[in-house]
């Protein structure tokens, strides 16, 4: 620096330098499942018709059957564009946008899907008294979820197939033992919802939340209408899951029983009160702000929880702690949970814990992290006098 430059230099006492925030540089990032994240820069807020052009400007090709979703936009405080002069001058903000390129949502016709239920044939009523209970554990349906090219249509069909297989299994089991009660246990995460992953699950949902609840309600009612004529007593239970939460504010979950899963069970109870012939059907939901349900049937106490309050592979440890706290579920002979989407059964001290599988389409991010897809299915078993048998995945 010359003397002139030194003498004419202006003071700079550490003024904040502007730099592009990390992760907001224009870029294209591809994920293992074929989806892409695209960061772009432009003027103002783009409308939905401009999303495609914005992404294509970075050389991204949108294949048939895929769509562009704007998931985040941020104003760049140091960048503006001035248009025109004088009274006609307009200043527009420069914005940085994050897009997701994802499989397009298929057009699911909910009314057509539900019409299938009305055309299903049911077995003729044939109640049978008995001292055993047949358990059907329905976990993590996550209706509305899309993955591996499947969505609500395929999940609903697997749920109905599991019902048909359960009826067949019940009839076969009755050849060797008397079964007078069925427990239909809904173990939470019945819908994909809108609260998990900060709402990002909506990007991979093929129907809206209220439509999903309508589908769940009618699928569950199909179980009730099919099973009720076959037994002396039908127990229908439901526990809250994390996806069933209707909202989260500031990362805080709502009251436990503020749950779509609990509401579906209550809706079913309301419907049965207006119908005839269902006095032997009992609906059981948790006490206020409780995450669990415990019932006694055929001399066996069965506890149910979704499982998001339990560490992985730690069912018995959590269960034991509930007993120490004198929670009623601590006295259960059998514990049924879901949440982890994989089957696991452990017996300890004569008590059986079953982590139940699911019939949902799967989770590519989980499979890629852990090295494989979980097997789909619905767990069933028979219990009487604190003993269990015939544990089957249908």
Structure, explained:
There is one protein chain. The protein has 394 residues and is of the alpha/beta class. The protein has helices spanning 3-8, 48-56, 110-118, 152-173, 209-227, 260-273, 315-324, 364-370; strands spanning 27-30, 36-43, 66-83, 90-103, 132-138, 179-186, 233-238, 281-284, 292-297, 300-305, 334-337, 344-348, 351-355, 379-384, 387-393. The termini are far apart. The model has no long low-confidence stretch (mean pLDDT 82).
Summarize the structure.
With 394 residues, the chain is an alpha/beta fold. It has 8 helices and 15 strands.
Provide the structure class. alpha/beta
Overall pLDDT level: 82
The number of helical runs is: 8
- Strand proportion: 25-35%
Give unreliable regions as ranges: none
Radius of gyration: 27 Å
Strand order of the largest sheet: 8-7-6-5-14-15
Give the tally of β-strands.
Answer: 15
Q: How does the overall form come out from the CA principal axes?
A: elongated
Q: Cα distance, first to last residue? A: 81 Å
Q: In percent, how helical is the residue content?
A: 10-25%
The major β-sheet equals:
6 strands, mixed
Q: Would you list the SSEs in sequence order as H and E?
A: HEEHEEHEHEHEHEEEHEEEHEE
Topology at a glance:
Layout: H1 3-8, E1 27-30, E2 36-43, H2 48-56, E3 66-83, E4 90-103, H3 110-118, E5 132-138, H4 152-173, E6 179-186, H5 209-227, E7 233-238, H6 260-273, E8 281-284, E9 292-297, E10 300-305, H7 315-324, E11 334-337, E12 344-348, E13 351-355, H8 364-370, E14 379-384, E15 387-393
Parallel strand pairs: 5-6, 6-7, 7-8, 10-11, 11-13
Antiparallel strand pairs: 1-2, 2-4, 3-4, 5-14, 9-10, 12-13, 14-15
Helix pairs in contact: 3-5, 4-5, 5-6
């Amino acid at each position: 620096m010359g003397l002139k430059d030194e003498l004419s230099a202006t003071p700079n006492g550490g003024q904040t330098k502007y730099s592009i925030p990390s992760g907001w540089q224009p870029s294209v990032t591809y994920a293992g499942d074929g989806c892409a994240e695209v960061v772009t820069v432009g003027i103002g807020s783009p409308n939905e018709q401009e999303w495609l052009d914005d992404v294509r400007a970075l050389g991204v090709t949108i294949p048939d059957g895929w769509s562009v979703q704007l998931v985040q936009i941020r104003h760049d405080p140091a960048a503006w564009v001035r248009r025109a002069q004088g009274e006609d001058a307009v200043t527009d903000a420069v914005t940085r946008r994050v897009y997701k390129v994802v499989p397009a949502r298929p057009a699911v016709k909910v009314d057509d899907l539900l019409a299938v239920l009305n055309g299903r044939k049911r077995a003729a009523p044939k109640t049978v008294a008995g001292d055993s209970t047949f358990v059907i554990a329905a976990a993590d349906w996550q209706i509305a979820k899309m993955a591996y090219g499947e969505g609500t249509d395929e999940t609903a069909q697997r749920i109905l197939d599991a019902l048909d297989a359960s009826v067949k299994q019940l009839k076969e089991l009755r050849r060797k033992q008397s079964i007078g009660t069925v427990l239909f246990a809904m173990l939470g995460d019945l819908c994909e919802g809108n609260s998990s992953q900060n709402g990002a699950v909506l990007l991979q949902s093929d129907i809206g939340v209220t439509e999903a609840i309508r589908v769940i309600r009618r699928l569950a009612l199909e179980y009730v209408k099919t099973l009720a004529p076959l037994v002396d007593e039908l127990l229908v239970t439901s526990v809250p899951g994390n996806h069933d939460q209707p909202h989260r504010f500031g990362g805080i979950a709502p009251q436990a029983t503020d749950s779509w899963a609990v509401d579906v069970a209550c809706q079913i109870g309301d419907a049965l009160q207006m119908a005839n012939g269902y006095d032997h059907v009992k609906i059981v939901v948790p006490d206020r702000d409780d995450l669990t349900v415990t019932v006694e049937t055929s001399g066996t106490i069965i506890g149910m929880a979704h499982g998001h309050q339990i560490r992985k592979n730690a069912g018995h440890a959590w269960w034991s702690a509930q007993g120490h706290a004198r929670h009623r579920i601590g006295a259960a002979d059998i514990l049924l949970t879901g949440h982890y989407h994989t089957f696991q059964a452990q017996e300890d001290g004569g008590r059986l814990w079953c982590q139940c599988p699911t019939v949902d389409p799967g989770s590519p991010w989980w499979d890629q992290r852990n090295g494989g897809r979980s097997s789909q299915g619905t767990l069933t078993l028979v219990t009487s006098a604190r003993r269990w048998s015939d544990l089957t995945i249908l």
